[in-house]
Amino acid sequence: MFGLPLAFAAPAVLVALVGLGALYYLLRVTPPAPRRVQFPPLRLLLGLATHETEPARTPWPILALRLVIAAMIIVAMAQPLWRSLTALGGSGPLLVLIDDGWPAAPTFDKRVAFAREQAAAAARAGRVVALKPLSEAGRDVTPMNPGEIDGRLRALAPAPYVPAREAALPAIERFLAASPGADALWIADGVELGGAQAFAARPALARSVDVVLDGGGVRAVAGADNASGSLKARLVRTGAAAPAVGVARALDSQGREIGRAPFDFAAGAAVEARFDLPVELRNEAQRIVIDDERSAGATWLVDDRSRRRRVAIATGASADTAQPLVAPSYYLERALAPFADVAEWRDSASDPIVALLAEKPSVLALADMSVAPGPEHDAIERFLEGGGVLVRFAGARLAGGDDDLTPTALRRGGRTLGGALSWDTPRHVAPFDKDSPFFGLAVPDEVTVSRQVLAEPEPGLAGKTWARLADGTPLVTAERRGKGLIVLFHVTADTTWSNLPLSGLFVDMLRKVVAEADAPAAGGDRKGARSATVSLPPWRTLNGFGALGLPPPQAEPIGDAFADVGDAAHPPGLYGAPESLRAVNALAPGQTLAAADYGGLKPRVGALDAAPPLDLRAILLTLAVVGLMIDALVALWLGRGSGLRRGAVAALLIVAARGSAVPHRAQAADAPPGAHDMEAALLARLAYVSTGDATVDETSRLGLAALTRVLSSRTSAELGEPAAVDPARDELAFYPLIYWPIVADRPQPSPEVRARLAAYMKNGGTVLFDTRDALTAIPGGAPTPEGLWLRALLAGADVPALEPAPRDHVLTKTFYLLDRLVGRTAVGQTWVEALPPPDPNERVQRPVRAADSVSPIIIVSDDLAGGWAADADGHPLFPLVPGGPRQREFALRSGVNIVMYTLTGNYKADQVHAKDIIERLTR
Amino acid sequence: MTVPPSIRLEAADLSARLPSLILAARNVAQTVRHGVHGRRKAGSGESFWQFRPFLSGEPASRVDWRRSARGEHAYVREREWESAHTVWIWFERSASMRFGSNLAPVTKIDRAAVIALGFADLSVRSGERAGLLGMTRPLANSGVIESFAEAIASSERLHGPSDAPLPPPAPIGARSLVLLVGDFLGEPAETERTLRAIAAEGAVGELVMIVDPIEETYPFSGHVEFHHPVGALRLRTQQAQSLRDAYLARLAAHREELRRLCARLGWGLSLHRTDASPAEALLALRMRLATPAAGAYRSA
């Protein structure tokens, strides 16, 4: 609009701007509210005729402000959009094609947002819009209304596989043919997978399609190898556009990170990321993902097949390391090393099998060794019960020995084929049966067996046989024993009986045997279960973003031999029973990612990154509200005095201030608790217990403040502002005197508080309890609620014996000479720690008595704080009973005496004797 | 209005700064109350005035034998006639007095209280007795300010705030002095009726008009709605400035009317603006009451 990248979603609303003219006249004749002033001599004004001329006009700045506010609101209602001109040209129907395979997943939000904008822009321009995610092959393309399109796009999620684009072609071509002049917009993922080039070359599309690409490339994991020493993941990328540096992570089945491996593609398209981890951790890995690349392709699922097993090898032969080529363990080690971690016990002097089994291998290989009953035999039995696989190889010892850890009974001795004394030639290995685990392995011709141990013919021998020689004699037999498995090779593990250990078949056979270590113990059912028709149902599948979840309803089970990459029917994921899962990945091991070649089409690279259009509504409405606030303030300033407006402005200011006020409160709450104590420790001050009753607390505060003022003006005790303390929370040790007004209806403090209080009193503090019940208490009568409350409080504390303060108590002499302590009332009894009784033998009658220390507790009932409390001007807050300035003075003097008592202790008790002492000295 | 302590302090402070007030003697001739200042003539009192020869027919008990023994004639000891003057004080406490514009440091009622209480203290300290008209009896103790303040406070508690623009009818002794402090913005006729009633009791009076500066300067313009501090009385004007001249003329006329009334009664009238110092007003009062020529209108 006007060359600006500005558009309106509801331009019709702008017609309302015409109304501004009317508003102008309306506002112009509505004067501002008058100033309201109080004027006592109003009577003198009343008769004066006010010659009414024309009404006052609204000042033009206010008028302009209000018109601008109205205009802003109208424009905002028209839903202005900034930068919305990225819409396509053209006027026919628009078909939006979206690549929604996993390569699009990392940038899927951007793609969907772009598609929504384009669809919305086209809809605004009055074009028919249709949507075709390329994974929905079969569905016909039909135009939809903008709301439907938007809903579909919001609900769209990437598929965990790469859909074949060809499959979607018929529907697209039908639509394009049916709507001539249609334009197509292809939001492509830039990956050749799924036939991007062939798709782009279709003439139907080449005519009118506009390809939009994301600038970045795609990275994925294509293969993981649990090699010896480290777990290696093969990472691929489409090209240099994809970030070269990153981190791959290995996750376990719970999604916890096991290891990290940084990688750097440098200039290449593939790189290997190595996780250097202990084998136990490597075996835990279930997923390998690329950081910051959320897609099914960047997630490689690892199943049990790539788990490395620990194989322990024990031989009956004394180890001869000088001649490794004749040692059976040498061949075993070499054959097992590619897929398992081998542990070998070389020290034949000690108990090799028990020691090896203590390391908890999955497989125990015994090369020509007979196991006699004893600890070794028991250890192997336990190992088998626990699910271990025992692999035995025949040999002279086994053939001559006699043990029961074989799948089948063996004939003593053995059979020699093709030897010097035999007619036979060495036998070849027969092809494997269908129900053998070795089925599928190619049998090379050069493998020959010249000697073997023979099984006793017995029923069921055929079922136990996994491999046989060409003449039908068993070569490998196996038997389930508990959860475990015994596999017997009827030849040696070295080359003396056959050349099998030299062939690749030996490695493959051992691999199959070791893989049995984790196969579920299906017992006799194994034979049937091993057929090719076995189906593994999906257990967990990946979504397009690479997150494992429940499989979609259309996911189908895979067969045992399934080796493809994931597709719509078999989404990448984990199949089978949870204890033995089979992984299906989005990429094949070793696959590469090629960038797509769009042929004649000119892809717009990076168009997805264009900033989305800005909805100006929020800005305009905010400005309008600010304008209204200014208008309210101006009106307030002009009219000065309308309560309603003042309230409105106050509310606005409160709303504005809230944002900053709240964090401050929170900060205050977070302040270290030491600050309060620090302050208390630096300056002596009186303290009162905040009871939670606001009136009582305020009275305490004002009373102590008044007392503090009196103290600093009359005595040398210059104390700080009184502090409110919570005995449950605050450190009490800093306060010489704590005033505790008793409020009967407050809950009793916790036992910890009592303990702290007792500790405070024991350490020399004084608590001044004030029951404030002097007027309600009946001397000798039932205790008041306050009295009961105090009793309950002190029940747990270690309180000294108390007595009513005698007239000669030092408390009445510390600063002023008083008869008694008074407060707001003057009838209450004062209780202090009991003094030692006067000494009858004392020569002179002492005018004052004192204990050795300050009484830790003083209980009064005259509401002392009420007697002291005064406002800031020094005016008493409470009437006294019976009353009079004299009583107030005496109340303050009582307070001064109490404070002096707590600060100076029994010093004054000695001081009143000073005269006698001096006399005695001068005598 | 309860008198705030700051007012009390200010009043006491103010009266302490003024010299002691001796009222003109001419009005006290027939007041029989004892007081501390001598009337410069023989009468009942404490201090010696003169000896005069005994007149036959007098009771013999009047003879001062000590003096008479020194001569041949019998003498009578005369004492100076001492009497106290009674000052009745009243200040207006209506809502109109509670007004204080931003041109003035205090509200009118604060200033009125300072002047009234200060004058009371001044009078008591110079030996007069002062009473709060209609509230207290004449008091002569030094705590008169506190007593007055308490009386006002208790009256407010009992009867609520007083809104009377003029003093209540109360017994006033003849020859008493009455000090009325207020803004006297009510109808002049009513003011006259009240003043005449007081004058009829034989008292002389003194009026202090308290004025807020804004009432004199009328600095309003534009669209203004005036309203009275109490009641629904209000006036809205589009151009307040057009009323200024007429208002000032009316104000002058109103004051002139009051001044004529006071002149007729022989009372004094002074004007006090709240932006001026209260000491000025009190000093002027004291000067005028110390001289016999009370009653002239002057502005303080």
Quickly give the structural class of chain A. Answer: alpha/beta
Regions with little confidence, pLDDT below 50 for 5+ residues of chain B: 17-36, 292-300
**Mean pLDDT metric of chain B:** 77
- H/E topology pattern of chain B: HEEHEEHEHEHEHEEHEHE
Low-confidence runs of at least 5 consecutive residues of chain A: 521-532, 659-672
Helix content of chain A: 25-40%
The level-1 CATH class of the largest domain in chain A: Alpha Beta
Query: What is the number of domains of chain B?
Result: 2
Biggest sheet layout of chain A: 7 strands, mixed
CATH homologous superfamily identity of the largest domain in chain A: Domain of unknown function DUF4159
> Can you give the helix content of chain B as a percent range?
25-40%
Task: Note the overall shape of chain A.
Answer: flat
Could you give a short account of the major beta sheet of chain B?
6 strands, parallel
How many helices of chain B? The count is: 8
How would the blueprint of this fold be written?
The complex is a heterodimer of chains A (923) and B (300).
Chain A: E1 6-8, H1 19-29, E2 35-38, H2 42-46, H3 60-77, E3 80-82, E4 94-98, H4 108-124, E5 129-133, E6 143-144, H5 146-155, H6 169-178, E7 183-188, H7 196-200, H8 203-206, E8 209-213, E9 219-226, E10 231-237, E11 245-252, E12 257-264, E13 270-275, H9 279-284, E14 285-290, E15 299-301, E16 309-315, H10 328-336, E17 340-344, H11 352-358, E18 363-367, H12 375-385, E19 389-393, H13 396-400, E20 415-416, E21 427-428, E22 448-449, E23 451-452, H14 461-464, E24 465-468, E25 474-481, E26 484-489, H15 504-515, H16 526-529, E27 535-536, E28 538-542, E29 548-549, E30 558-559, E31 573-577, E32 580-584, E33 604-605, E34 614-615, H17 617-639, H18 643-670, H19 674-682, E35 685-689, H20 694-714, E36 720-725, E37 737-741, H21 751-762, E38 766-770, H22 785-795, E39 802-804, E40 831-833, E41 857-860, H23 864-868, H24 885-904, H25 907-911, H26 914-922
Helix pairs in contact in A: 1-3, 3-17, 4-5, 11-12, 17-18
Chain B: H1 5-17, E1 38-42, E2 48-53, H2 65-69, E3 75-82, E4 86-91, H3 108-125, E5 129-132, H4 144-159, E6 177-182, H5 188-200, E7 204-211, H6 213-217, E8 224-227, E9 234-237, H7 244-265, E10 268-273, H8 278-290, E11 297-299
Parallel strand pairs in B: 4-5, 4-6, 6-7, 7-10, 10-11
Antiparallel strand pairs in B: 1-3, 2-3, 8-9
